[in-house]
Amino acid sequence: MFEKSVYLKRRAELLARLKGQSGIAVFIGNVDAPAQYRDNCYKWRQNSTWLYYFGIDEPRFAATVDLESGEETIYADDFTIDDIIWMGPMPSVKSLAESVGVSHSAPYAALDQAVSEAKAKGRQIHAIPAARYYNEMKQRSLGIDQASEPLIRAIVSQRLVKDALEIAEIDKACNLGYEMHTAARNGIRVGRIEQEIVGEMEAVTLAKGWGPSFPTILTQHGEIFHCHTHECIIEPGKLMVIDAGAESNSHYASDFTRTYPTSGRYSARQRDIYQLVYDCNELAFSLTRPGITYREVHLAVAARMLEGLKALDIVRGDVDSMVADGIAGLFMPHGLGHNMGLDVHDMEDLGEDLVGYDDDQKRSTQLGLRSLRMARRLVPGNVVTDEPGIYFIPALIGQWKKEAKDGGCVNYSKLETYFDFGGIRIEDDVLVTPDGARRLGDKRLPASPDEVEEAMAA
Of the candidates 303, 337, 351, which has an alpha carbon nearest to the alpha carbon of residue 437? Predict the structure, then answer.
């Protein structure tokens, strides 16, 4: 938790961004979620918007903010003696509220009355989309049937720009992610089971932070983007994609991806594709600066990728035309990156388009480009991922060939020799600065093919 002044300032800025709106804003924190039964719950994680404005990392808290008077109330219940027996002593709700600059508190049940009274007076109720079942049911019980776009837009515009305190916390999460990935790289040995490495790398995050920032992806089938099964034995000559992040104790995230040769050295064919992905990653970073849209960066990466694939005779034709026709989506069916902060995909619970797109932008329907989560014009303080990849997905390639989707640009006879290749992705976390960008964390994980091979040899 930050100092009281941080939360006071954040809520004051939110009110300023909502100037002209009337009514009350309702914020509902998360509650414990049972895994199998009521007393055996999933690991506790607070709602990120709640953390940003109120900071209290405890279940079953809510708040209202009067958009006209500025009056704030936190709703929660003090521990009973039964709670104390099982959980130990807990600061009072009043003291917790005061620690984040809220002078008025009330029992949790009083939230219902406060919302009911506001509605009876014809006042507007503003709330964000509910990401969890309990929060959705609670909002329904309060008669909140839809989220408030003005509130969402105000929150997004504020949280997209990270302040110095947040940047410092993300740097810490990235340093922890560096340790996590180093443990994983050091654990790659032919004959081991993938799960053993997952256990070693996640142990780092649990020993020094909250844990992984999302379910770890570690696979010798890199063509499967979200492969969370780890039962395979590490085989020689394969490529292992490790996409994993750490969440710090302050709940800020990191998200890195590296692709390693399981035998310690890339084959000639693996190195060709790896070098191309690395070049795309470097190009994206070099272009990242205030004023450019991340959509433009994505398209520049698509062009560089197709140039490299053309040199390998996998595609043929005019590169600009292939970019316009979406041919890059066959090889990179995802977007270049996403926002990152208190969530690894920051604020996407508030609406992906509202978070990732400016008002003058429209999401593409093309494969790959349509999955670009962050397309906005960049400003200092944005934190984005830079994660180009090239994948050879037999089912997708087969579909394109059958339906002639490539317009004659794809050399399928060459491409089909890559069916057993897998995929490669390289991902860094990037802060947009006033004069360009910097990679987050004190050190960058080995990224070039030579750096990776040297690190594995060591």
Answer: 337
Name the domain boundary from 131, 159, 187: 159
CB atoms within 10 A of CB 255: 25
Residue 410, strand partner residues: 315
Asked if 232 and 194 count as a contact pair (C-beta separation under 8 A), the reply is: yes
- 266 and 248, same structural domain? yes
Task: State the CATH number of the domain containing residue 95.
Answer: 3.40.350.10
Q: Is there a single domain that holds both residue 134 and residue 180?
A: no
For residues 153 and 195, membership in a common domain is answered with no
**263 plus 409 within the same structural domain:** yes
The 3-state secondary structure of 131-182, one letter per residue: CCHHHHHHHHHCCCCCCCHHHHHHHHHHHCCCCHHHHHHHHHHHHHHHHHHH
pLDDT at 17 (0 to 100): 98
- Measured CA to CA, the distance from residue 166 to residue 344 in angstroms comes to 14
Whether 34 and 182 map to the same domain: the answer is no
> 53 and 14 in contact (C-beta within 8 Å)?
yes
Domain at 206, CATH number: 3.90.230.10
Mean pLDDT throughout 174-179? Answer: 98
pTM of the model: 0.97
Domain shared by 128 and 206, yes or no: no
Determine the average pLDDT of the residues in 409-413: 98
Mean pLDDT of the chain, nearest integer? 97
**Is the domain of 174 the same as that of 111?**
no
**Mean pLDDT (whole number) for 435-442:** 98
390: nearest Cα among 364, 365, 415: 415
CB contact at 8 A, 73 and 85: no
Tell me the pLDDT tens digit for each residue of 354-388: 999 999 999 999 999 999 999 999 999 999 999 99
Q: So what's the pLDDT on residue 1?
A: 87
CA atoms within 13 A on the CB side of 155: 27
Cα 126 to Cα 139: distance, rounded to the nearest angstrom? 11
Residues spanned by the domain of 266:
164-457
Beta strands in 255-410 (DSSP E): 256-261, 383-386, 389-391
pLDDT at position 201 over 90: yes
Specify the number of domains making up the chain. 2
Residue 407 and residue 323 share a domain: yes
